[in-house]
Amino acid sequence: MTATAAYEADDSVEREISRIGAAARAAGRALGLADAATKNNALRFAAEAIRARRDDILDANAQDLAYAETRDLSAAFKDRLILTPDRIEGMAAGLEDVATFPEPVGRVLDERVRPNGLRISRVSVPLGVIGIIYESRPNVTADAGGLCMKSGNAAILRGGSDSLHSSGLIADCLREGLKRAGLPEDCVQLVRTRDRAAVGAMLRLHDFIDVIVPRGGRSLIERVMNETTIPVIAHLDGICHVYVDAAAQPQMARDIVLNAKMRRTGICGAAETLLIDRSQVAGLLPKIVDDLINAGCELRGDAAAQAVDDRVQPASEADWTTEYLDAIISVKVVDGVQDAIDHVNTCGSNHTDSIITDDMAAAEMFLAGIDSAIVMHNASTQFADGGEFGMGAEIGISTGKLHARGPVGADQLTTFKYIVRGEGQVRP
Amino acid sequence: MTATAAYEADDSVEREISRIGAAARAAGRALGLADAATKNNALRFAAEAIRARRDDILDANAQDLAYAETRDLSAAFKDRLILTPDRIEGMAAGLEDVATFPEPVGRVLDERVRPNGLRISRVSVPLGVIGIIYESRPNVTADAGGLCMKSGNAAILRGGSDSLHSSGLIADCLREGLKRAGLPEDCVQLVRTRDRAAVGAMLRLHDFIDVIVPRGGRSLIERVMNETTIPVIAHLDGICHVYVDAAAQPQMARDIVLNAKMRRTGICGAAETLLIDRSQVAGLLPKIVDDLINAGCELRGDAAAQAVDDRVQPASEADWTTEYLDAIISVKVVDGVQDAIDHVNTCGSNHTDSIITDDMAAAEMFLAGIDSAIVMHNASTQFADGGEFGMGAEIGISTGKLHARGPVGADQLTTFKYIVRGEGQVRP
Questions:
Q1: Contact across the interface for B120 and A418, Cβ inside 8 Å
Q2: CA A83 → CA A65, A176, A217, A284, B318, distances in Å?
Q3: Strand, helix or coil at A162?
Q4: What is the pLDDT of residues A333-386, one digit of tens each?
């Protein structure tokens, strides 16, 4: 059912990736022209295949886990690798959910009639071929592959070598769904090798890959961004800030800070730095410190924050630009909203930042002045999520500014073309 | 009035470009928050300054031309470099025209209220800092600088070394306009050196440049695309096709082919290849060949096209992928619309392609199947132009698929942010 290949030397990897790319380009053209019903059928058939082959997927995952045991991997790493019946059902249900989304291709984004009678419309079309490079989570194979299918894009998936067997079977299920729906299987291809040279070969595949989406830790994202001149949609860091303004409601500030930091500490929308106006240091900050410490959070503060509570550790310069993804928060006392804005624009990662205040002028100043994908007023940064935004599934949250910014769902995996309809017009 | 710097070694160039970048980032934040009236004032004041300093600009241009005389440059090159009173007035009028465009920043692109009461809007914001690398046309300084001002972006301009004096004075006028409007002059900065190392330094300036826009010949564009991992908006080639279908109206086909090729041969929307259905070879093709040859066009055809008229030269493989930008056209006989689509998608440059037919099914197949920024039905490819599209001035036509595709005007020089307004919501 699936393409398998022996990868021996770098050269053969390069050739194999090139062959995969050419096949993706050709298959993608058919997928790009497919109607909504056909693509949604493919997604539902793929979900059926995943359910039908659940035990095979669990067996493959056991193989991957056995391989992982031979290596010195962290518990968190192994947790991301593990598939359970629930997680497998989650993948299938996720594909069915994507099938219910509105059709992202063929949307008329603009339409105008020119004085010379030319009718010009701007219509959404797929990007073409998307290369997705990710780490150990095998479910990314289904999630990313499904979003590409929905948006009419061929996908070249390169998962972590530790999830090779699990991802292989999941990719097989997607290909089975495509085939049953009458679409080319090569719309979804998995790079089936542990050879890391495959990543380099993908990053050079200009002719056949239109955009690269890396998903994983900072080192992977940085490698991809530094090595490729193919456009990249990526999420580099989530150094999110909550700024508690002079005019913040105390209880609202306490609730939002606690939620933004501690609801889940490992997601990119978790707050990493608390900024608080100097006027709040005496009254409100001690309560926030208590809340966080009682919830098991470590605090690292500047001198003014340390003076509040001796359980606040000293922050180093590096703390202001660190994404902890853990129960740690840095705390800085600032002098008003402009000072907060300057700190965020200097130390932040253009992801998500929130101001807590009842002063509407301060709020608008913050919302306009912060150069981030998502800016919030009186809300927890943990809402930075495609699902919470009503966009359905997302392939990630982009911290870049070009093309896609913020949650990247099926719509963001499209581009557009101008369609010009005339009756014989020539240009004078 | 303007920053000038002595550039001595590569290292000093690198430092100077970095200083320019930091100044652009800081100045751009103020510009990004400026209201429409202030930006439009800056544009109008800049136009006034250009008119007021017309004679100085002509003197500077004479210096550039004298320098050009010492080098072995083509007549076309020198023509692009020359400024006349008319061309200077054109720059001033162009800036005033941009001032009349709708405001590109602050457009609400989407708005939704979530079930939890969060109000989420997606609002257009400037990209930040745009690096523009161009060749000898000094008017690009005004055109590109003006579009950046309008769209709230700081501009780092690096013009061809041959236009250094002319571009320097024009940049001074833009800076004067910014200053008079109360905006930081450093929103527009010209790299004032002939040292080509400045281009390399710009291409590495990730921290301060958000997007690079190269304007010029293919070698410049390719260098930029190959050397930078900063996002690039560029126009690589304009290998535009006209396909004359079996169901084309003969006179319409003749008019459009002649216009698409010969109206102006040097623009990117000029047709470079004529595809014609085999059924039209006996009747229509000889007339089209006559039209083109009478207009002074050289034809290079495949065997079937050569058989029509012995003035048709043989085409080589390279002809199908050559952008002549001259009075030359390649001619290929194809078997129906799918054959035409396959040729365009293989040999084209994703720019602009047109089908001439009265068969609506063939037209829709072509419009859907061609993977180009602009696809046309019964219209001349020479309409591929921001002005003709009603978008006002353009910085170029992008043949890339990400972010901006087709004409790149002020709107395309913006990105967006999500603004989330709550009343204390935390995520469950």
A1: no
A2: 10, 20, 20, 44, 52
A3: helix
A4: 999 999 999 999 999 999 999 999 999 999 999 999 999 999 999 999 999 998
Pairwise CB contact (< 8 Å): A420 & B376: yes
Q: What share of chain A is helix, strand, coil (3-state, %, to 5)?
A: 45, 20, 35
pLDDT in tens, B335-373: 999 999 999 999 999 999 999 999 999 999 999 999 999
Q: Which fold, B10-236?
A: Aldehyde Dehydrogenase; Chain A, domain 1 (3.40.605)
- pLDDT at A177 > cutoff 70: yes
- Residues whose CB falls within 8 Å of the CB of residue B289, separated by 6 or more in sequence, listed in order: B299, B305, B308, B309, B311, B312, B331
CA A26, CA A38: separation in Å to the nearest integer?
18
Whole-number pLDDT of residue A353: 98
With 0-12 / 13-18 / 19 or more C-beta atoms within 10 angstroms meaning exposed / middle / buried, residue B313 is: middle
* % of chain A surpassing 70 pLDDT: 98
Q: How far does A57 lie from chain B, in Å, by closest CA?
A: 32
What is the C-alpha separation between B416 and B126, in angstroms, rounded? 8
The reported pTM is 0.91
Band of residue A77 on the pLDDT scale cut at 50, 70, 90: confident
Min Cα distance A10 → chain B (Å) is 22
Torsion of CA A56, A57, A63, A67, to 10 degrees: 170
Contact A352, A381 (CB under 8 A): yes
**Other beta carbons less than 10 A from residue A369's beta carbon:** 19
pLDDT value of position B394 = 85
Could you give the CA distance from residue A181 to residue A35 in angstroms, rounded to a whole number? 11
Kindly provide the ipTM of the predicted complex, given to two decimals.
0.91
| Strand segments (E) across A223-266 | 240-244
Q: Which of residues 250-279 of B touch A (CB under 8 A)?
A: 252, 255-256, 258-260, 263
pLDDT over 90 at B191, yes or no: yes
Per-residue pLDDT tens digits for A139-175: 999 999 999 999 999 999 999 888 999 999 999 999 9
The domain segmentation of chain B, as residue ranges, is 10-236, 240-383
Cα–Cα dist B407/A420, whole Å: 13
Mean pLDDT for all residues in chain B = 93
* DSSP percent split of chain B into helix, strand, coil, nearest 5: 45, 20, 35
Select the more confidently predicted residue: B8 or B195.
B195
3-state secondary structure of B178: helix
What is the pLDDT at residue A161? 86
Angstrom CA distances, B126 to A376, A400, B32, B41, B189, stand at: 19, 13, 6, 18, 17
pLDDT digits (tens, 9 = 90+) for B368-403: 999 999 999 999 999 999 889 988 788 888 999 999
Taking an 8 Å cut-off on Cβ atoms, the answer to whether B255 and A424 are in contact is: yes
Grouping H, G, I as helix, E, B as strand and the rest as coil, residue B14 is helix
CA distances (Å), origin B397, targets A386, B55, B177, B387: 31, 32, 27, 11
Chain A CB contacts of B270 under 8 Å are none
- Distance separating alpha carbons of residues A261 and A251, to the nearest angstrom: 16
The alpha carbon of A257 is separated from its chain's Cα centroid by a whole number of angstroms, namely 23
**Tell me, which fold does domain B240-383 have in CATH?**
Aldehyde Dehydrogenase; Chain A, domain 2 (3.40.309)
Other Cβ atoms closer than 10 A to B8: 11
Architecture of domain A10-234+415-419: 3-Layer(aba) Sandwich (3.40)
For B377, which residue in chain A has the nearest alpha carbon? Answer: A421
Q: A145: Cβ–Cβ under 8 A, 6 or more apart, which residues? A: A155, A157, A170, A171, A174, A188
